Target: Peptide deformylase
Amino acid sequence: MSQDFTTGGKVRPITRWGTPVMHAPTTAVTEFGEELHELVRDMFATMRAAEGVGLAATQVGIGMSVFVYECPDGDDRIQRGVVCNPSVELPTGKDRTLDPAEEGCLSWPGGYSSVPRPDKAICRGQDAFGNDVELVGTGLLARCFQHETDHLNGTVFGDRISGRARRKLDEQVADLAWRYPADWPVSPKATSAPRPGTAAEDE
Model:
């Protein structure tokens, strides 16, 4: 990116699984002007406030095909950027190695589950100005590219695990729901559970 979109944004509430925008394909980005740039700045601010490594537009309630990332690659080097209208190419045959690492999602906070994914991914799309980009992701960055592109296709990682694993995931999220206000990360995570009988318990 020739312009810095990583600063100057406003933190927005993160949309949760179950909201329709999270489970529907997005609309392609066709205008690469200030409206998009404002969204991208806000997405970076929101991702950082939530301590994430990637964020799709659907996660702030916008059905546009764009995601941002600030994520270490397979060599632990931080890579950051924005991709509009992404597609992901994954290795096949003997070049395909699955990484079974646990995965989480800012839109289903507090839950983690093993999601086998290829440890390399090529992500193609456009930058914030409409220029074509081709990015090679390894390690966690490869997972990030796949996870965020899934979001833009209406898929959450909970759709990729077994029913038993999904129930366990949902239980984890329910157990920690008290930590995450409805407008998180605009409001920060709670640091201690509400005492029984307090008003916070009923919110």
The CA atoms of residues 71 and 77 lie 8 Å apart. The helical segments are 34-49, 140-152, 163-175. The chain has three helices and nine strands.
